[in-house]
């Protein structure tokens, strides 16, 4: 039944019933504050014996309807549902993890299961370990929440090396990239705890510029297509898609990593402050990841050490409600890639040179100002001298 504003105005009880019905049947009212506010306002507005004039009330209703429509259009594209997928999730009590055929997860290297965590590496030198899903993931949109812990006896910058969360074509392959193979195919999100590049620059008696300095521990992401190598000496700087600092070592509270891939958009967030609030790390559109890859986590120690623990990895299937009918039109992705990656790299290079560019811009601006002032004084003196000659 369609109701106009005039109908609602002429019958306040009808408006109240309509508001209640709208609130009851429109589940989005409960999920979206803007819609809920609108629903409750409709019921309250006509039930309250207001002393305002009819004109003001009608204008108020029209304004609210406008806001409601705008809110609906802006939120519909982002309206999502999520469902926990237990076959791709790892959590306590880790029943059967590591045993043949009795679990969806498999251990590799020095990884071991305890009652409290899956320890990828102990706080010992030259160890590497991993845990990998046995089942390939064919979900189009997903969200991974990782509960992890990094702790050890080493002091600041005397610990290493970090852990990684993977969504890759390959699995169970040892290597130098946080315990996984180099030239991988897929997505890697790294929690890097040791600044290799900084130590390398110190050995060459060089320093970071203010714009290129990075604070460790660091969370960064990389997409590989099987031919791109991770630059260990530079902590993955040439291939990073984005990064943020994350002080995650030796904390008494829980630490979490959030990875979402929806509509070819990669979002990484962290919760490391004990406030149960996600903090943005990177958000990048145009990321293309194929289906059928494997989830995993790995860690590596060298001369410096740490305990790298995974408490849980929970995968959620994401359903974008407003896009259900558009899935058939999208082409299948076969090779991982990032749109406009060259422009992203160029932007990083431009930012690296920006301090030099600013210096020369300021320098030439000052020289130009001095030149204009001198020319102005010369022209003024010439004009003043010419003026005096006219009186003789």
Automatic annotation (TrEMBL):
**UniProt source species:** Mugilogobius chulae (yellowstripe goby)
- Indicate what this protein is called per its UniProt record: L-type lectin-like domain-containing protein
Identify the InterPro entries for this entry.
ConA-like_dom_sf (IPR013320), Intracellular_Lectin-GPT (IPR051136), Lectin_leg (IPR005052)
Tell me what topology the record assigns in the membrane: Single-pass type I membrane protein; Single-pass membrane protein
The cellular component terms of Gene Ontology attached to this UniProt record, alphabetical and capped at eight, are:
COPII-coated ER to Golgi transport vesicle; endoplasmic reticulum membrane; endoplasmic reticulum-Golgi intermediate compartment; Golgi membrane
What are the record keywords, sorted? Disulfide bond, Glycoprotein, Golgi apparatus, Lectin, Membrane, Metal-binding, Signal, Transmembrane, Transmembrane helix
- Localization (cell): Endomembrane system; Golgi apparatus membrane
Which residue spans traverse the membrane? 353-380
Q: Show the GO MF annotations.
A: D-mannose binding; metal ion binding
């Amino acid at each position: 039944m369609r109701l106009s504003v005039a109908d609602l105005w002429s019958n306040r009880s009808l408006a109240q019933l309509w508001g209640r019905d709208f609130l009851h049947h429109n589940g989005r009212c409960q999920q979206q504050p803007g819609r809920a506010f609108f629903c409750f306002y409709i019921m309250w507005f006509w039930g309250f014996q207001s002393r305002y004039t009819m004109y003001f009330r009608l204008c108020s209703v029209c304004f609210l309807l406008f806001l409601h429509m705008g809110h609906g259009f802006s939120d519909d594209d982002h309206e999502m549902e999520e469902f926990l997928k237990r076959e791709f999730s790892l959590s306590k009590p880790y029943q059967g993890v590591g045993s043949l055929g009795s679990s969806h997860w498999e251990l590799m290297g020095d990884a071991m299961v305890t009652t409290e965590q899956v320890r990828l590496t102990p706080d010992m030198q030259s160890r590497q370990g991993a845990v990998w899903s046995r089942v390939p993931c064919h979900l189009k949109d997903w969200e991974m929440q990782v509960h992890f812990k990094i702790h050890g006896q080493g002091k600041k910058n005397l610990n290493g090396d970090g852990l990684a969360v993977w969504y890759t074509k390959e699995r169970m392959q040892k290597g130098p990239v946080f315990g996984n193979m180099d030239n991988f195919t897929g997505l890697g999100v790294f929690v890097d705890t040791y600044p290799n590049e900084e130590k390398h620059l110190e050995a060459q008696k060089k320093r970071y510029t203010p714009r290129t300095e990075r604070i460790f521990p660091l969370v960064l992401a990389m997409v590989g297509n099987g031919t791109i190598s991770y630059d260990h000496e530079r902590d993955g700087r040439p291939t990073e898609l984005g990064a943020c600092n994350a002080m995650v070592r030796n904390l008494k509270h829980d630490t979490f990593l959030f990875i979402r891939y929806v509509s070819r958009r990669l979002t990484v967030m962290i919760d490391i402050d004990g406030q149960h609030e996600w903090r943005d790390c990177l958000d990048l559109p145009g990321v293309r990841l194929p289906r059928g890859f494997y989830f995993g986590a790995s860690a590596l120690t060298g001369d410096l050490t740490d305990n790298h623990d995974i408490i849980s990895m929970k995968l959620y299937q994401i359903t974008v409600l407003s896009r259900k009918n558009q899935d058939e039109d999208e082409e299948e992705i076969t090779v991982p890639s990032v749109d406009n990656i060259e422009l992203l790299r160029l932007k990083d290079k431009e930012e690296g040179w920006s301090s030099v560019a600013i210096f020369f811009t300021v320098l030439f601006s000052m020289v130009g100002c001095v030149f204009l002032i001198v020319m102005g004084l010369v022209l003024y003196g010439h004009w003043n001298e010419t003026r005096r000659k006219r009186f003789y």
